[in-house]
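FAQ: What does a ligand-bound record look like?

Like this one, built around C2E:
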Amino acid sequence: MPATATPSSSFNLVRTYALVALVVFGLAGLSLAAVLDGWFEQNVLHLAGERNQALARLVGKELWEDFGATLREGADGVVDAAIRARMQRHIHALTEGTDITGIKVFDTRGRTLIASDEDAIGRIEEGNEEFRLALAGQPVNRFATRDLAYAEREGITGTRLVSSYLPLYGPDGRDVLGVVELHVDAGRLIEEGEATLANIVYAGLGIMLAAYAVLFLLVLRAQRVITAQQEEIIAQATRDHLTGLPDRGTFADNLEQAISRARRLGQQLGLLYIDLDEFKAVNDRYGHQAGDTLLRTVAHRMRGVVRDYNMLARIGGDEFALTVGSPADAVELDALAQRLGEEVGQPVEIGDQHIRITASIGIAVFPADGGDSESLVRAADTAMYRAKQGEGGSARFYNEQIDHRRHTTHELVQALEAALENEHFELYYQPKVDAATGSVVGAEALLRWRDGQRGLVSPAEFIPTLEESGLIVPVGEWVIREACRAQRRWRDAGIEVVPVAVNVSAQQFHQPGFAEGVGAIVDETGIDPRLLEIEMTESCLMEDVESNVMVLNALKEKGFRIAIDDFGTGYSSLSYLKKFPIDTLKIDRSFITDVHKRAETDNAAIVTAIMALSHSLRLSVVAEGVETAHELAYLHALGCRTIQGFLFSQPLEESEYEAMLRDSMILRRTMEAIREELAVGGA
Ligand code: C2E
Ligand code: MG
Ligand code: MG
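The answer part, i.e. the structure of the complex:
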């Protein structure tokens, strides 16, 4: 795929913007603060100076009125102490309650006439630059604390003093009589100002940040829009214009990637080639526009079927391809092909016409049918070609074995569905016999399928297909219901009934609410639950011990009997056996065969062990598949009382089994024959 702005790269970009902007804002804030601070100080000076000047005028006016003569005299000599004291008081009264912390009055020659600091009186300031400027009529204001020498001399610390040298005008406002030096504590002024300044700076920063946040979001959004547009442009370029599906080139890239991913993860990859049949005829008959509409419609429908992570592409005029990541099995691919075929097969409305078209689908699987994209494509294409040779609208696997199996499975599933619907299933009953007396103590219901063409079909031929297709669930339910109904019929006919065992497959057993379902059937048919025994194979019980224990307990609570079928083949451990609420172990036929011929097999040892086990767990035992009198005699000697097998009876049709229940003599006669045989053999 071509390089494009990914969401993470645009995020990085925005983050860079954010950092740069923060630095810029920080610097801007600092310089703004510096500029504002300078401006602020100037203003403080100006304000304090203005006020000092006004004060100086006032002082000048007052002093002139009271002490004009003295001051003029003072220019030549020292002011009389008494007058000076009056002047001091006067000035003190003037500055009382103001920010003025100190005051000095100099005559025109720079002599200190009056000073709040008495020690300074008489000191000459003539050489002082500020004094001279003030005397020349130019007021000077400055921060006193900046001038360290001065501050030290004047004992100024901590406070931010503004010191002003101001001309002292006489009452005419023109003659300069001397110079006044005023110290003003600008601390309060500065504090207030600084607080305001801080507020301004904070507000400014706040506004900037808010503006920045808005900007940030806008940039982010713009970035997203741009990325989406880029992707769209790329997608447009790699898509087929008519159907909007990825085009051939894109598909090839994608297949390459999918194969390397599958190889890396050790998974399979399905490839379906879908070719429309007789598409050219549509074009010829209805025109190209109709052909385009058909392609668009069919593409749209197929896309509805495939999941997002499969890539469906248009790879040619009327050819499509689909990759299927890690398909579960051939059945899944097959089902998908069927659905695609069905979608294609729906009529397409063009104008007032309904056009129908079919597709031929070839299926190939990586790595079995091709280890790289080229050979996989070739395999799918070959399979598609074979499908074309067959009747229209079919799918073919490249692997011919799968293809064959799939074909027969398909037919079989359909036939079994029909059998369930048309009640072509039957139950046969095989009696379980007391080895000592030959009386019937129970029966096992065994499923048969009576098919018009196939005749009577044994379960070995169709149970696996029932399980694969999930049909085992409804069929199994039918078995249980039918066994219960039969029990009910026999009871109603006044026959003394014995328990019937039904076989339950794992899938059926694990259906939620299985135990409740069986309970409902029993209630519905009105039979005693103790007359129904559930047979589960040992291997099925060991699959999921914890949940099986729960289901078995639920069954047990309802009063059903439970048997472990094919016991000895499923590697169950003793600790698990103890957990299961079971009644019966059915020893698998393989251990019964030739059990009496100790030397040839281990069967005798195994059966002996099972007998001991069942004894200690208090379970009853049924020996399955007993065929000879010698097996029977041997089992009987080992303590096994219940026998199921051809020796006594094959599985019987319902009517035959019913006859056996009615007439106990049937099996007694068999029993006698067996005894005779044993006597002859033994003699
Ligand atoms: P299973 O449950 O172990 O049933 C015993 C099988 O052994 C029956 O085969 C029975 O006909 C056969 N058999 C009994 N005695 C002898 C004998 O002396 N010699 C020989 N050679 N075979 C004997 P069937 O009826 O063909 O059933 C085969 C299997 O199919 C059953 O084995 C059971 O696992 C399954 N099955 C039958 N009916 C059902 C059903 O309704 N539901 C389910 N889930 N499975 C069923
Ligand atoms: Mg069984
Ligand atoms: Mg069995």
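Follow-up question: can I read anything off the structure? Yes, for example: The first helix runs from residue 7 to 74.
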